[in-house]
Each structure stands twice: as structure tokens, then as C-alpha cells.
Prior knowledge:
Oligomer: single chain
Helix content: 25-40%
Amino acid sequence: MHIINYNQKYEKEVVDLWNKTLIADPITIHKFRKQALFDDNFDTELCFIALVMDRVVGFLLATKRKFPYLERGLEPAKGWINVMFVDKDLERNGIGTSLVEHAETKLKSMGVETVTLAAYSPNYFFPGVDKDNYLPAIQFFEKMGYQAGKESYSMSKDLHGYQICEDTMDKLSKAQEAGFSFLNFEYKYALELLEFLKNEFGGGWKRNALISMQNNTAEDCILIVLNSEQKIVGFCMRMIDGNPMRFGPIGVKDEVRNFGIGGILFDIMQLEMEKQGIYHLYFVSTDAPGRRFYERHDVKVFRTYVDYQKTI
């Protein structure tokens, strides 16, 4: 077995092995190219293929930023192992260990001090390590010195026959009496919304809305909340990756949370999705408080991820 830097002649073999091993996350060549090869920070020096007699038996993609990401900048001391997999027929032969050691050595030579598994923004394949579908991966990385952090959750909901409940309708009436209005996005709010998102939630949220505006989908995919002074105090959207069923993010200003604005906004978005014939809602990642919020709206967890990091 020997390890080489990424060579595109092995592309189909890499994707085929991905689909053989990461069975909970099948992928197409087009998605692989879009999220890996065409990411701004892709570097062949951080992408490794394990070969046995010129056959692909393992793969690892690592990342260190070459271009700043919004307010996070270059994060010079951070690196990521985005994805790794090994042919199941050849597990426990040191292939995975060699791939990870190659990545850690190269990342360390580039100034990286902390390596995070999977959760690379904005083009992550996974928000962490799936503890149910890939338990052997968790056991492997823990042996390699990676330490567990917080959990995050993928959640989903069937929207067939969705109706806004009476409790939400009562809250909506009270919110409207207090001067709040819930609107589909219009481009006259574009600059105010972008500034609101940057100031309240950070550049990543601004970027999601900006892309939707650039793609001319914002009027269909974004809802906003105005207060009595006609200022934006809440927001939610969907389709951040082009999939109409993908919900999020959602957020409201702290000062108006006592009015239940977030829950009203979420329920209105669900109804808007059903109106458009979108009968399934999902999102990839939320934290424990987010999970509690969504479970109150009958959204169910379907995957649980664990954050892992290592100081090198």
C-alpha cells in the first residue's frame, strides 16, 4: 500500500469506494466535484489516495483555508479532515492510520494546531461524525487522539396536510396586535436584511441570504418579521443548497423573543412550503437548544453527530 496526493484519474474509483463504504451518505461525481474539488480551499497536497496495486483502497480529504471565510478570516491555526474512508475488505491494515498521519503531518507543517473532523464551513459533507451509522469511525478516531465535543442533530418533518395550530394562530394575533408583521421577502428590504443578518448572526447567515438574492429565489424562500417601526427583527429561509426542502436558518432579535416570534415564523414557513407542494422539511444541523425548539413543532431527529477535535 502506498499513499499519493489526489490524482483525478482515480475520481470514479474514489466515488465508487465512497458509496461502498459511507453507505448512509451516497454521493454522485457531480456532488463530489462541487463540494471537494471545486471548493476554493481545495489543495491536492491535502487530499490523499491510498492505493494497492493501483487500486483505490482509501481516501482522505483535509482542508486548510487559503482564502478568508467571512468574519472568521483564514483561521490559520485550524484545519479539517473533511472526510475519510477505507475499503471495508482491508480494514485493520493500517490504511486509515496512515492516511490520518499523512494529513496531520502536512497540516502541522502548514501551521495548523487544531484539527476538526468533518465540520468545515461552508462546504461540509457532514457537521460531525455520525455516531449511529459510523460507530467504528468514532472508535478509530478516538484511538487516534480525537476528543468528543457537543452533539448536533439532523431533523425532518412530513408536511402532508400541515395546518397551523390554534395556539400559533392565537400567538400570531397577539403579535400582530403588538405591531409585528410577517412578510414574504421583497427586494426593497434587501440591504436592511443583509445588514441585520451580519450584525445579529454573522457573515454566514448574510452569505446564505445573499446567494438566494443573487439567484433570484429570495422572494420564494425568505420570510421576514417587521416590528411596529417597520424594522426587521426576524428572518427565516430555506433552500440554502438549492434543495427546496432544506429549511434554515431561522433567527429573531433577543429583544422580541418573548413574543414567540420564532415559533410563529417557523409555522408560517411550513405552511408556505406546503402551499408550494413541498411536503418534506429537513435541515442538516442544529444544537441541543435548537432540537428542543423544533421538537415542540413535531420535527424529529433522524441523525446525531458528534464534534471531534485534536490538538496536533
